[in-house]
Design a protein that fits this description.
The protein is of the alpha+beta class and 452 residues long. Helices cover 37% and strands 16% of the residues. It has three domains: 16-188, no CATH class; 222-320; 341-449, no CATH class. It has helices spanning 16-23, 27-45, 60-67, 92-96, 105-115, 120-128, 136-149, 194-200, 222-236, 310-314, 322-331, 350-357, 371-381, 385-396, 414-423, 433-449; strands at 152-155, 158-161, 244-250, 254-268, 271-278, 287-291, 295-300, 341-348, 367-369, 403-410, 427-431. Strand 3 and strand 4 form a beta hairpin.
Length: 452
């Protein structure tokens, strides 16, 4: 037995939070690798039963010879089933579900499938695969990942065990909110930032090379926002999620109380919002996006509380989910997904379009159309003869070579309004007529500021 003096002890069971952190991306796609890395850690830092007798530093050859039997193939190919007691013969399920881990297979499977929707048949197949029946190259890659995560140090092609483990999620306590990038599947980063964040979120040669700078207007109330985020997390971790009473400082209505079911949290453009279903500050509709820094108080309520709005009591067994919100946002441009949708017709200066818009993604409904289709669309959409004649004259003075687009948008959404203003004067709203008139008045008022 080599002298491990001193080597810290790891006792973490393979809970989903830890496996997700080890996966460094989609757990669904990297499940076997994450479980294999968990086994690696116990061979390096486990108790006397799990820890291998290795020198410090050690090489891959040291680890291989201590982990596998003497008859284990040493070539480049994945090993065949050559000996029943070799570590490469054990299935994933055998590594996971034995008394020492304390895992109940049904509970672990349910926890995994709540995190990632893996069909039972696919999960059965993964669990029956031989976890370490992989190539030498794959095992070398495992060592590289453990080094990048801070579990090992590499020098002169030898690996040194560390004295202090990296911060990681555990069954007892997850990492603080601001350290969780990389703990969970980053598929929630929309759109298409997951791959970038996964590849570059970790320091390279101990230097951070990737940054995300977002427009965030919350500063003095940041502690309050973090407090509410933790409050929501606690609510959502309960078996029965309770409705809440919000005291909310509405810009239009002043301080109001709203009783809602908290569905999910979004960061959009400049701030963090709670999507709440129930009573709204305007007393219109059933949905509202509450800016977290404007929430003054949160009080959980029982489902039998007499103050609950009728809509909440009726929907208790069919409460809305974040998927509903996402589906509504995909149908129309704008974050206020509960506002009515309308068709917008836009004209862009061709040079501006080709330099800044061409090849970019705006919204699924943001589509180019021809000049000829613009004329037809105006006939179909405009009811007033007066407005139709006006728009016809406008189009006669516009170039057919300009870029014309249609998009379905949420009427009254402030983020849509801000984007249109940012594009001025290179964009012209042709439809709807009411929005065109509203922008006309804005431009006239702005024009007067610069007359003197």
């Amino acid at each position: 037995m080599f002298n491990f003096n001193p080597v810290p002890l790891i006792e973490d069971p393979p809970y989903i939070e830890l496996l997700q952190w080890l996966a460094r991306g989609s757990l669904k796609q990297n499940l076997l690798r994450a479980i294999r890395l968990w086994v690696w850690l116990h061979t390096l830092y486990g108790d006397e039963q799990d820890r291998l007798s290795l020198p410090n530093p050690f090489t891959y050859k040291h680890w291989r010879d201590a982990f596998f039997t003497a008859t284990h193939p040493k070539g480049e190919l994945a090993p065949n089933l050559h000996q029943g007691n070799c570590a490469c013969a054990k299935t994933t399920a055998q590594w996971l579900f034995y008394p020492k881990t304390g895992l109940v297979e049904s509970e672990w499977r349910r926890s995994l499938q709540q995190h990632d929707a893996i069909p039972d048949v696919d999960l059965d197949e993964l669990l029956q695969q031989r976890l370490f029946a992989v190539t030498r190259r794959t095992l070398f890659a495992d060592l590289q990942i453990l080094t990048e995560l801070g579990w090992l140090k590499l020098a002169d092609k030898q690996y040194y065990r560390v004295q202090n483990f990296p911060s990681r999620p555990s069954v007892r306590e997850l990492e603080p909110v601001n350290n969780r990038l990389g703990v969970y599947d980053l598929g929630f980063l929309n759109p298409n930032l997951e791959a970038i964040a996964q590849n570059l979120s970790q320091p390279i040669q101990n230097v951070q090379r990737f940054y995300i700078e977002v427009d965030y207007i919350i500063s003095q109330t940041q502690n309050q926002v973090e407090k509410w985020l933790e409050e929501f997390r606690n609510l959502w971790e309960q078996t029965t999620i309770l409705p809440i009473c919000l005291t909310y400082a509405s810009a239009k209505s002043g301080a109001v109380e709203c009783i809602v079911y908290p569905v999910c949290v979004y960061y959009v453009q400049r701030a963090v919002y709670l999507c709440g279903f129930g009573k709204t500050p305007t007393n219109k509709g059933e949905w509202y996006n509450y800016r977290l820094d404007k929430i003054q108080k949160i009080t959980p309520l029982a489902w039998n509380d007499a103050k609950l709005p009728k809509m909440l009591r009726q929907r208790r067994t069919t409460l809305p989910t974040p998927d509903y919100i996402r589906s509504q946002m995909l149908q129309a441009w704008g974050f206020d997904f509960y506002l009515p949708s309308k068709l917008m017709l836009l004209r862009f200066d061709r040079t501006f379009h080709d330099s800044y818009l061409k090849g970019t993604s705006r919204h699924a409904t943001f589509k180019p159309i021809t000049y000829q289709w613009v004329l037809r669309l105006i006939r179909e959409q405009v009811i007033s003869v007066k407005h139709w004649e006006s728009l016809q004259k406008v189009l006669q003075n516009r170039s057919q070579d300009d870029a014309y687009y249609t998009v379905t948008y949420r009427d009254g959404d402030p983020n849509v309004g801000l984007r249109l203003r940012a594009w001025r004067p290179k964009v012209e709203v042709l439809l709807p007529w009411e929005l065109r008139e509203e922008i006309t008045k804005e431009v006239e008022a702005e024009w007067h500021f610069y007359q003197n």
